[in-house]
Amino acid sequence: MIILNTVIHPCDIIFTIINAAAIAATFATQQPDGFTDAQIAAIESVIAPLARVAENRLLERTASILLDTYVGNNAGTRILAGQIRRGDTATINAAIWLSDMRGFTRLADRLPPQTLVDMLNRYFDCQVPAIVKHGGEVLKFIGDGLLAIFPIATSENAGDVCHNALAAAHEARAIIASSSRVEGGVRFGLALHVGEVLYGNIGSGSRLDFTCIGPAVNLAARIEKLCSQLERTILASDEFAEHCSGKLAPVGNFDLRGIDGRRTVFGLEGEAVLANR
Q1: Sign of CA dihedral 31, 37, 39, 43
Q2: Sorting pLDDT into bands at 50, 70 and 90, what band is 21?
Q3: pLDDT grade, residue 249 (50/70/90)?
Q4: Alpha-carbon distances, residue 57 vs 18, 45, 61, 77, 84 (angstroms)
Q5: Residue 277 in this model has a pLDDT that exceeds 60
Q6: What is the rounded distance in angstroms from the CA atom of residue 140 to the CA atom of residue 85?
Q7: How far is it, in rounded angstroms, from Cα 63 to Cα 71?
Q8: What's this model's pTM, rounded to 2 decimal places?
Q9: In the predicted model, what is the mean pLDDT of residues 31-43?
Q10: Which domains does the chain have, with CATH numbers?
Q11: Cα–Cα distance between 141 and 123 in angstroms, integer?
């Protein structure tokens, strides 16, 4: 809606509505006699182009908010910049976060669907703010699973990024353990790894997903599966632990499905006693 306010001259009201949202501009003057006829004519001459500009800005802002909500800020920025072709990817280094709820299948069998959805939302609310706060970006919710990355700009800041990811993990773990918003004593497992991932558009010709894939993501997924077996909430690869000296302790060497060679896995000191309680 564009409204021309004047002290003595009435003026038509022009409406421009996009998706039920009104765009409004108000013009006022301190001149005692109000706008002159020439001034009113000049304002009226810019109303139409001003409305078009406002429409474009509104659509751009709406698209940005939707992309931030559904694919994350960094991915959304890339998509708006035109990175929308299938196979349009980039190789980046990142700390990888892959978490999963323990016993989700059992809960899904006994809880009403809406109750289950509400519980999942509260459960993810315990993780996402911590991830974002410490510089991470959530890429995907996979049922009860969550995939996030903490991009590493240069090799020099890899240590800082891994420390941030570990701090987010501690924060999420503490919130889940203490929060009464997540009913039923929900437990979770989280794997942390650092490595090279392929980040970008993957999918079919008419339906793409902005995500990350690669051996580093696969390794994180295999480590995450150990959390339940070892009764641990947080496990990390040796590559990740190298950047967090003194923060993690080795818990053993393991054969991981689809991964060559035995891998040393690290966890939080003392969590063998406190795990998931």
Answers
A1: positive
A2: low
A3: very high
A4: 11, 20, 6, 15, 21
A5: no
A6: 19
A7: 12
A8: 0.76
A9: 85
A10: 2-71 (no CATH), 86-274 (3.30.70.1230)
A11: 12
**Number of residues that this document lists for the chain:** 277
Burial of 215 (C-beta count, 10 Å sphere; 0-12/13-18/19+): middle
- What are the beta bridge partners of residue 148? 97, 138
Strands 145-152 and 89-102: antiparallel
In this structure, which long-range contacts are made by residues 52-60, counting pairs with CB atoms below 8 Å and at least 24 apart in sequence?
54/16, 54/23, 54/25, 55/16, 55/18, 55/23, 58/18, 58/21, 58/23, 59/18
CB neighbour class for 190 (10 Å; exposed up to 12, middle 13-18, buried from 19): buried
What backbone torsions phi and psi does residue 106 show, to the nearest 5 degrees?
A: -65, -45
**What digits encode the pLDDT tens for the residues 106-156?**
888 888 889 888 888 989 999 999 999 999 999 999 889 999 999 999 888
Distances, alpha carbon 256 to alpha carbons 20, 145, 152, in Å: 54, 19, 26
Q: What is the pLDDT of residues 252-275, one digit of tens each?
A: 999 898 888 889 999 998 776 444
Specify whether the CB–CB gap between 106 and 217 falls below 8 A: no
Do residues 131 and 170 touch, judged by C-beta distance below 8 A? no
Tell me, letter by letter, the H, E, C secondary structure of 203-223: ECCCCEEEEEECHHHHHHHHH
Return the H-helix or E-strand segment holding 97. Answer: strand 89-102
Give the DSSP H or E segment for 17. Answer: strand 17-18
What gap in Å lies between CA 46 and CA 43, rounded to an integer?
5
62 touches 54 (CB < 8 A)? no
Q: What φ, ψ does residue 36 adopt, rounded to 5°?
A: -80, 165
